[in-house]
Design a protein that fits this description.
Radius of gyration: 36 Å
Structural class: alpha+beta
Number of domains: 2
CATH class of the largest domain: Alpha Beta
CATH topology of the largest domain: Beta-Lactamase
Shape: rod-shaped
Order of helices and strands: HHEEHEHEEEEHEEHEEEHH
Length: 347
């Protein structure tokens, strides 16, 4: 046996071990890739579920909070004597100045009472600009603001009568602030007789500020118009997004807190989505809150992790081959002495 034979054995041993290590590391890398992908998807779905739960809680708290404010004002009006709420004039004397207090105290845009003759007592930004606590409006009375205004023809008035309780309007853009707004209203009765309808207008600024702090991609829309009124993606607010009907369809199919996959109508992106209904029995309204995520965002994270695994495996492979070659050289070095002895004997 000569040195070339010794080197050949070392090389063959290193190659065999290298192939074995390569196959083992390849299998481990593939298994780690699959496991990592499944874990990332599972964790992402759980995170979106958590975001959705926070969103649902915030919206429910917002809606219930302003319903409580509306009903607190109604309770005050209900506590007034019959003669104090007999007609428009008596309500003006007793309630007019209080409307300003209610508006400022509840941080709303306007507080008002609409009457069956179409007139209205209102404290709003217009009365604030006039330096007055309230103003009189509509009902065909020429001395009032906007004589042609008819409170009874408005959705907030008719909705409260139809519900015989709290009514919440669809979201709309406030003419002054250009921000999403709602109107809450409820009928006022005395001894079963309709006195008028109490209403409050409010912005969604406080709710929107909460949404802006949320991670992920979350939004809420009403089931009628499918137009988002709150989201941490401002471009969605008050826009008729083409994917909303698609999302609503999948939510109806899968149910609350069930993850589904869909393709965004406008961008053709594959996405995960999870939604939940937000129903309020007091106001008979229903909203849908959702959290969505691009699938390619997860794939990028998976690939990034896979690249790390591959680089690590290559490093381990080179280290293993070098170690085998080094140790095999040490272990096979006695062959050189034997070879020399045999050569000396025959010489």
């Amino acid at each position: 046996m000569n040195v070339n034979t010794q080197m050949s054995v070392k090389n063959k041993l290193s190659i065999v071990v290298g192939v074995i290590v390569f196959l083992a590391l390849s299998i481990i890398t593939i298994m780690a890739f699959v496991s990592s992908r499944n874990n990332l998807i599972s964790n992402s779905k759980q995170a979106n579920e958590d975001y959705l739960l926070i969103t649902e809680t915030q919206v429910e708290g917002y809606v219930d909070g302003y319903i409580d404010i509306l009903l607190a004002i109604k309770k005050y009006i209900d506590s007034l004597g019959k003669n104090q709420v007999l007609n428009f004039d008596s309500m003006e004397q007793i309630l007019g100045d209080d409307l300003k207090i209610f508006k400022d105290g509840s941080n709303t845009l306007a507080v008002y009472v609409g009457f069956p003759d179409g007139t209205m007592l209102v404290s709003d930004t217009v009365s604030d600009k006039k330096g007055a606590n309230f103003r009189k409006r509509g009902g065909g009375v020429s001395s009032y603001d906007d004589p042609s205004y008819d409170a009874t023809s408005r959705d907030w008035y008719k909705g409260a009568i139809a519900n015989d309780g709290v009514f919440i309007s669809d979201v709309y853009e406030d003419s002054v602030t250009k921000l999403p707004s709602f109107t809450y209203s409820t009928p006022i009765k005395k001894n079963g007789k309709l006195i008028g309808v109490l209403g409050v207008d409010l912005l969604l600024t406080s709710l929107q500020k909460t949404f802006e702090k949320l991670p992920g991609n979350v939004f809420v829309f009403d089931t009628t118009s499918s137009i988002p009124f709150a989201s941490n993606n401002k471009s969605l607010i008050l826009t008729q997004h083409p994917s909303m009907e698609e999302i609503k369809k999948y939510h109806q199919q899968f149910g609350d807190y069930k993850t589904f996959e869909y393709i965004s109508v406008d961008t053709q992106e594959e996405r995960f989505g999870i939604c939940a209904n937000i129903d309020n029995s007091k106001a008979k309204v229903s909203y849908i809150a959702c959290a969505t995520q691009k699938q390619d965002e997860l794939e990028m994270l998976v690939l990034k992790d896979a690249y790390k695994q591959i680089i690590f495996s290559i490093i381990i492979l080179f280290i293993s081959c070098f170690a085998i070659y080094f140790f095999s050289s040490k272990l096979l070095s006695p062959l050189q002495a034997i070879q020399k002895g045999i050569n000396s004997f025959f010489d």
